[in-house]
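WARN no homologs supplied; continuing
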Amino acid sequence: MSSEPTLRLAEFDDAERIEELVESSMTASYALSPQDIEMISEAVFDTDHIRDRIDSSETIVVVAELDDVVAGVVEATLDEDESEIQWLHVDPERRGAGVGTALFERIQSELADEGIEEPRAVTLAANTSAGTFFERFGFKQIDERTTDIGGRESVEYVFTAQADEEAQQDESESDADQPPEIPETASAMDDTELYLGEDPFQGTEGWFVETFSDADRSEQYGYYCLNCGSADVAMDNMERVRCGDCGNTRKPDDDYDGAYL
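OK structure emitted
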């Protein structure tokens, strides 16, 4: 698989593939029933609707390709007052390659070329991870509204870029949240001696670090929770890392593409 996605404006021939990947993305990432997902897909992502938006002067549609396959899509509406970034989706089978990040940055660039420097970003409330994704780009939620999609009333969250002072304050607070000192070794649940790595990553309650079974740190054993000092840490098939003692949890970050509009 290619290491980086290729980005371009969507074309008519992309419509069927976009419809397919959006339905897959929503199935994997949205807290909606299969019936609701099918309804939204038919109302918004029918091939003809997609082609209409590709052809419209009031909409920008960008796709990302990996190995010549469309792996993600993002749309934005053009309006001098309230331009919005909408419907960012990544194929579940091609997540983890930075597609979501690349799409979000590209759509912001496309809007900037149109003279729009501060677009809003909108997501359905059913997409529970989108807020974290937007926050990585300095956005914060400012509103909640209802919208009609295919005859179904849905809740949307509206995000906007933070003011410079607020963003700097958040950055300062983030800088202050540093990992604790990492022990050289720790004990596994079976008393196996573990050697701790040097690159901690943050969870909901504290930090994690990789563990190794050898002093050279060439054979990874698992993970260690720096929040409570436990090696009872597991990774599930969605790449979530969770401490069995204190509940500290790390969801895949995006570089995982954990949030899709």
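Residues 254-261 have pLDDT under 50 and may be disordered.
OK
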